Amino acid sequence: MRKPLIAGNWKMFKTTEEALSLVEGIRAGVHKVTNCTVVICPPFTALDAVAKALKGSSVDLGAQNMHPQTEGAYTGEISPVMIKELGCRYVILGHSERRQYFGESDLFINQKVKTAIKYSLIPIVCVGETLEQRESKQFLEVVKKQIDCSLADLTKEDIAKVVLAYEPVWAIGTGRTASPEQAEQMQSYIRRLLNEKYGQDVAQKIWILYGGSVKPDNMAALIAKPNVDGALVGGASLKAESFTEIVLNAAKESLVGKAS
Questions:
Q1: pTM for the structure as a whole
Q2: Which entry of 95, 97, 129, 184 is annotated as an active-site residue?
Q3: pLDDT of residue 257
Q4: Per-residue model confidence as pLDDT tens digits over 137-174
Q5: For position 260, what pLDDT does the model report?
Q6: Looking at 104, 129, 167, 253, which residue is catalytic?
Q7: pLDDT tens, position by position, 95-138
Q8: Is 167 a catalytic residue?
Q9: Shortest CA distance to 15 belongs to which of 243, 238, 240?
């Protein structure tokens, strides 16, 4: 069984002082949870302070992005070596906001994924379609291309170290959430793609998260689906109470004995 993974993407929110207050609340809220992996991804400026605040807890630290090069003349960028030094275990790559606002291509994301694996960081690789692509029935084709290109040339050993996150762009920050059935349709499709390329043994081990207006009241229904292994949470991760409730709901559902 794939133990649920809940990751909070704080995006460009929280000063260091605000981040420490939020971490304190999250840490207190999830400290008894043993059957759910919890990750928080603060902005770069708060990573060091948050890493120190998480010491001794079961909550893992992640970064929201990184450059594929370890050093160089890349003004404003952060390298994998830098985020690892700060205590990051995870890194979000290919988020739709990076694709949309910063023009990141599947090829560039692929370079980042390979570098993350090289430096023993666990990449959370995001894929998902726009509303126009959903309504024109291109969503399966779009996500297949993103997966094929973003994960190109990865070995079975490599892919086993990757977390995937299906985030329909039309549901991110809009209040609209894919129904549990829509999420399961796409995530079972992604699992089939992985199965065809890497084999069932590998495909069954890979976490596939759902992201897009995840809230406490829809988490249980989403994660009850066989191929929804957790969530990449945006807005609801900015309040300790709502993020904690999402974690608790996911953990509770996993105890029910969801099939993997």
A1: 0.96
A2: 95
A3: 55
A4: 999 999 999 999 999 999 999 999 999 999 999 888 88
A5: 43
A6: 167
A7: 999 999 999 999 999 999 999 999 999 999 999 999 899 999 99
A8: yes
A9: 238
How many Cα atoms sit within 13 Å of 141 on the Cβ side?
A: 6
Q: How far apart are CA 125 and CA 111, in angstroms?
A: 12
pLDDT of 29-40, one tens digit each?
999 999 999 999
Tally Cβ neighbours within 10 Å of residue 127. Answer: 27
Q: Delineate the domains of the chain, giving CATH numbers in brackets.
A: 5-255 (3.20.20.70)
What pLDDT is stored for residue 259 in this prediction? 44
Chain centroid to CA 190: 15
Q: Among candidates 98, 125, 95, which has minimal Cα distance to 110?
A: 125
Gap between the terminal Cα atoms of the chain:
5
Compute the mean pLDDT over every residue in the chain, rounded to the nearest whole number: 95
SS3 letters for the chain? CCCCEEEEECCCCCCHHHHHHHHHHHHHHHCCCCCCEEEEECCHHHHHHHHHHHCCCCCEEEECCCCCCCCCCCCCCCCHHHHHHCCCCEEEECCHHHHHHHCCCHHHHHHHHHHHHHCCCEEEEEECCCHHHHHCCCHHHHHHHHHHHHCCCCCHHHHCCCEEEECCHHHCCCCCCCCHHHHHHHHHHHHHHHHHHHCHHHHCCCCEEEECCCCHHHHHHHHCCCCCCEEEECHHHHCHHHHHHHHHHHHHHHHCCCCC
The alpha carbon of 169 is separated from its chain's Cα centroid by a whole number of angstroms, namely: 14
Answer yes or no: 31 catalytic: no
Whether 226 contacts 186, CB under 8 Å: no
